[in-house]
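Minutes, project check-in

Agenda point 3 was the complex the collaborators sent over. CS summarized: two entities, 221 residues total, and the question is how they sit relative to each other. Sequences were read into the notes so everyone works from the same version.
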Amino acid sequence: EVQLVESGGGLVQPGRSLKLSCAASGFTFSNYYMAWVRQAPTKGLEWVASITNSGGSTYYRDSVKGRFTISRDNAKSTLYLQMDSLRSEDTATYYCTRGGMVLLDWGQGVMVTVSS
Amino acid sequence: IQLTQSPSLLSASVGDRVTLSCKGSQNINNYLAWYQQKLGEAPKLLIYNTNSLQTGIPSRFSGSGSGTDYTLTISSLQPEDVATYFCYQYNNGLTFGSGTKLEIK
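CS then shared the predicted structure for the full assembly.
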């Protein structure tokens, strides 16, 4: 059974940093592209970033380019999202997803609140 | 590519045939998926590549469409289908529609 378990969320002040982790199990992690998708409270879904299976290439939505960094450790089957210079509009539940184009499986999500 | 879903809210009776619409701002080339999100849960993949049913999804769910216009159909609505449904395109970038909230009448 595929499991994706996010951690690292919380309350953070604007301009500060936070690093999310996603522990994967139930599949060969190194074979799959991975992505982060977020959902602001009572809003729709928004793709944030993706990474190839090797970690050699990364992709970001424009609003987080230069502030967020997606990475992975295939030896630990773990996906990361380093979020710097956080803004109030980054407040959302962040989901870890398996897949590059079609997002096959999703974690339960972790809440990030950016507020002073 | 922007996706417009309609209606935003749909109320139907158990057993009804339900149709949800998703329209793209440009050609999606059938790279269209549908997700179901129940209250307080993560989204779940239902359909990919317009009409391919994901493993484990009941056969009452089906997808169709081409070009810019796509449809998710539930052939016989069940109480457990209450959820918000999002379409998602992966033809040019990755974008989601704003969702259709499905309720039982």
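Noted in discussion: The mean pLDDT of chain A is 97.
Follow-up: revisit at the next meeting once the mutant set is ready.
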